[in-house]
Design a protein that fits this description.
38% of the residues lie in helices and 18% in strands. By secondary structure, it is of the alpha/beta class.
């Protein structure tokens, strides 16, 4: 965060504010960790701050300090709308376009509050008075730490804040193995541990606590994996019927896409998940090396994200979507062999 923006934020926070903090739809560890971490920090400064999520979040994040205070917009629209209407400051975290909040978009577009964006995805839009955007950051949680540091307030980072921010950094870096993990990331994490983040316990709660439905869905997904050796690519499909048969719960498919990248010579991994309620196929893309899944998702599946991790969607059937995907690969063959 630059000096000019930090001064603007310092000025805004120098007086009492009604603050709403928003993550993207289908929030993950980084979205929940960053919003809760920021909420705790702002409350410690005496501010009135609340997190409003567009919809619910996975069970493996429901141990996090303050998660019980999150207002779920789709479950309590009137109460959530009241907070948005009355907010003088609105922080949007881990997304950079208002379309990423789904059915909350209209409410945010009509809001009178001053917007502050903190995000690490590419191509930010210009709705915020203060935009802290850095695509080189490991996570929005690392950026929230930097934000607190920029306004010279790291002494107010409590154990609750540290646990929230550590969770988001850990999940968005794949337990610190992705290329976005820098020496700075490790220094931030070290300070969070010093301030009370329980790193081993967090890892166990997020990664090592499974449900029968998650393991059954994982088994189904791995059975469905298709390996395309000519394109160094592996993809997985999960139909709505398969999800229903295995008792799917939110969060059960988290991280499954990464299994493709554990195979020798695979540099491009994809999972296609049918969602009949929304009438779409949800797609997650992952890559290793220089193949940009952000560019691939933007060009072909109405998506985007990072160079090695992105998302997208398709409005046609699951079979038609995978057929389209396979048909595209020849165009990228040289990049996938590189």
């Amino acid at each position: 965060m630059n000096i000019e923006d930090s001064k603007v934020v310092q000025s805004l926070l120098s007086s009492p504010q009604k603050i709403v903090i928003i993550p993207h739809k289908n929030p993950d560890g980084d979205a929940i960790g960053s919003t809760l971490g920021l909420m705790h920090y702002l409350k410690n400064r005496g501010q009135d701050a609340v997190v409003i999520a567009p919809n619910d979040f996975p069970k493996f994040l429901k141990w996090m300090p303050g998660q019980e205070e999150i207002i779920i917009f789709e479950n309590d629209k009137d109460f959530a709308q009241k907070h948005i209407t009355e907010a003088s400051l609105i922080f949007t975290l881990d997304f950079n376009h208002l379309s990423r909040v789904g059915f909350m978009q209209e409410s945010l577009e009509a809001a009178d509050g001053t917007f502050i964006m903190i995000d690490h995805h590419q191509a930010p839009s210009d709705y915020a008075k203060v935009t802290y955007s850095d695509v080189h950051m490991s996570s929005t949680c690392e950026m929230v730490y930097n934000f607190i540091e920029a306004i010279e307030d790291t002494s107010k980072i409590t154990a609750d804040i540290a646990n929230c921010l550590y969770t988001g950094i850990m999940t968005d870096t794949g337990s610190f193995k992705y290329s976005s993990t820098t020496s700075r990331t490790h220094r931030v994490v070290a300070d969070l541990i010093d301030k009370g983040a329980e790193n081993m316990a967090i890892h166990n709660k997020v990664f090592d606590t499974n449900s029968p439905s998650r393991l059954h869905i994982l088994g189904c997904a791995l059975k469905n994996m298709v390996i395309l050796e000519d394109y160094n690519t592996a993809y997985i499909t999960l139909s709505q019927e398969e999800l229903d048969e295995n008792g799917f719960k939110k969060g059960d498919t988290e991280g499954i896409v990464n299994y493709g990248l554990t195979l020798d010579n695979i540099i491009f991994a994809v999972i296609f998940i049918e969602n009949k309620d929304e009438g779409i196929i949800k797609i997650s893309f992952r890559s290793q090396g220089n193949f940009s899944v952000n560019e691939f998702a933007r060009a072909n599946f109405e998506g985007g994200g990072h160079d090695n991790a992105a998302g997208g969607k398709s409005d046609i059937s699951l079979q038609e979507t995978t057929d389209k995907f396979v048909g595209l690969l020849d165009k990228y063959k040289d990049q996938l062999k590189g």
